[in-house]
Amino acid sequence: MTTTVHPQVVGPAQRARRLPEAWLRASLAGIEAALISWLLVVVPTVAAYVATAAAPLLGEASWDDAAVIGTGLWLLGHGASVELGDVATVSLTPLGTTLVSALLVYGGARRARLRRPATAAFALAGYTLTVLGLSALVTGPVGRPVVALCALLVAGLALALALRRARAPRPAWWLRLLDALPDAVRAGVRAGWMTLAVLLALAVLALSIALVQGVVTVLELHEALAPGRMGTVVLVLGQLAFLPTMVVWALAWIAGPGFAVGQGTLFSPSEVITAPLPAVPALGVLPDPATTGLGWVVLLPVLAGAGAGWWLHRRRFQDSWWQAALSGVVTAATVAVVGALLTVAAAGGIGPGRLATVGASAPAVAGALAWQVAAGAVVVLLVLHPQVHAGVARAYRRIVRRTDDGGARTNDDGGAGTSPTPPPES
Description:
two-stranded antiparallel sheet; 2 domains; 6 strands; 65% helix; single chain; mainly alpha; flat; 3% strand; 14 helices
């Protein structure tokens, strides 16, 4: 019996799709960062409940109710709006909680030694999904789409910094984008971040000075609350969570527009309008109505812009004067955009009625920072640029030449039209 064997054509081997290396470790790093940041808020809240469980004001509240409240406070750091009872809605973001979450994601990525964007995507997914899962503990509308978006932003920025620190290879699309941008734009963006760091340092300094001046008021408000030992710990931690938020308020104060703590109030360098405020010790650092006439502080962003212009001239010199001016404009635009985003993040509500308006106006802060930084950076860049020097010198010589020619022409005309005086007759 004869067996016929048909030949088979073997094509090129197809590469099996595999998950990125260390994807599980990256996912666990994101989940761990979310859980630790959640516990850092929930554990003190539950501990405060246990310490005051016998208080009549608590009624029939249990420890799991305290855990739900702590979860809501934690979600505030991710852009949530939490309802306290039936009358108040809190939406003011404690940026301290946001920063701690970002630091935990950054540290987890560093420990997991993530060096590829594809692997970091699993850490991003693990963090975001864990945040959404924990948000299920809070009933009612908390703005879960906004929470998901904020979680993506917080973890994404932290992972991007971790990959940059690990010298991870940049994606091809990012390299193409950088190559497409003019050098003046890239230099302006970098100078904008440096200028923003200087302005935030000035805001921290301004807030520190306000704390020193209002420390007596802060201590009096704290003693009036009589929180006890555990209550003191929770109260201090809660106020520290809002400390970066107040730094953004100080930035708005330095820029000039100022901020509000309740509708109808205004705290700015040139004007202070107050109203009854909640008995929160941290609010004791707010400017007093007598501390006005400080409008000169708006010169600080101008000086910061001038410093950015000096750095651009020395380190990122542009051959053409208009390119130098463009780098200064991009610097101001970068500061304005990021300042507006920070202002939006540091605005919200802390209660019903007029307390639903807390923070600064993002368009006003962005506009003020834009013209202040641009005024300093562009002027310095133009004053120092050689093309501007040459143009001014040519204009000066042209004016002097015209002046000399006009004077000589006047003298010639005067000499030709004047007849000599005849001698007197004898």
